[in-house]
Amino acid sequence: MTTTIRRRRLAGAIAIAVPIAVVALGFAAWNDAGKQPVEDLTIEVPLPKEAAR
């Protein structure tokens, strides 16, 4: 088997595997997006009495 044929087979396998991996990772991220806990990071800032007018 020549080097050219090996490279063609490898390139074909990569051309198929990479898009499948990208789609799979995107799908996993999409499904996991809403499951993370969210902390309430709201803070209360006291305003000066002059600003309350």
Compile the SSE list and pairings:
Elements: H1 3-32
Account of the 3D structure:
The chain is mainly alpha-helical and 53 residues long. It has a domain at 1-33. 57% of the residues lie in helices and 0% in strands. It contains one helix and no strands. It has one helix at residues 3-32. The longest helix is centred in the N-terminal third of the chain and has 30 residues, at 3-32. It starts with a helix and ends in a 21-residue tail after the last helix. The mean pLDDT is 82.
List its traits.
single chain; mainly alpha
Summarize the structure.
This protein is mainly α. The chain has one helix and no strands. The protein has a domain at about 1-35.
User: If helices are DSSP runs of H or I spanning 4 or more residues, what is the number of helices?
Assistant: 1
How large is the share of residues in beta strands? Answer: under 5%
What structural class do helix, strand and pairing data support? mainly alpha
First-last Cα distance: 86 Å
Query: What letter string, H or E per element, gives the SSE order?
Result: H
Sheet having the most strands: none
Q: How many individual β-strands?
A: 0
Helicity range: 55-70%
Shape descriptor:
rod-shaped
Low-confidence stretches: none
Oligomerization: single chain
Radius of gyration, CA atoms, in whole angstroms: 27 Å
Averaged pLDDT: 82
